[in-house]
Amino acid sequence: MLKIAMLSGSLRASSTNSAAIRAAARFAAACARTQVEVQICSIGELPHYSEDVEEEGWPATVQELRSHIESADAILISTPEYNGGIPGVLKNALDWLSRPDGNGSLQNKWVATVSASPAAFGAVWAQENLRFVTTRSGAKLINDDLVALPNVFELIDPSGELTDPTALAKIESLVDAVISHSIDIAGRDLVCPA
Ligand SMILES: Cc1cc2nc3c(=O)[nH]c(=O)nc-3n(C[C@H](O)[C@H](O)[C@H](O)COP(=O)(O)O)c2cc1C
Question: How much distance in Å is there from the Cα of 81 to the middle of ligand 1?
């Protein structure tokens, strides 16, 4: 069984990035090639990162997130763009996961990225920023190309779910790549080559 941890960089109740993650979770759960367990991780309850707090021991919410990430074969993150970068709440989560420096939860983890925005570029700056920060923390990227959902408010239905066929095809293809990649390395060495 493969385990994929998924997280959205938006806390908004009607978040389009969370909708993208839910769509990805549905595709993964429906995978015919192998059984996939999906863990959608929440990041809104994490305390602000502080070395003082870390020294006292991982807070429970941080520990829970770290366990989900560490036990996953792959991680899928969807990010909005706030002022040209990833939202602070996502950076905060990634900072917690980056610790201890050089040996954090993201070290040698396979990460796939996607971004969604109501604007025309689909939050590609934020996605580049996400890829920079995660790889800086030791993660390895699964998708070579950015997967972006521009004009995303036109791609969701009134209930807030992603329904646009082209957008769904992009997400399905990304999930497929994540699963293929994970199957490829499962049974061999899950630690990525340097
Ligand atoms: C503080 C702030 C900054 C934003 N900056 C950008 C930006 O730089 N680029 C962009 O495409 N959208 C920007 N937006 C709009 C977000 O893309 C939009 O709110 C989007 O719906 C957030 O993603 P979500 O639907 O997953 O919550 C910004 C929104 C906020 C609240």
Answer: 5
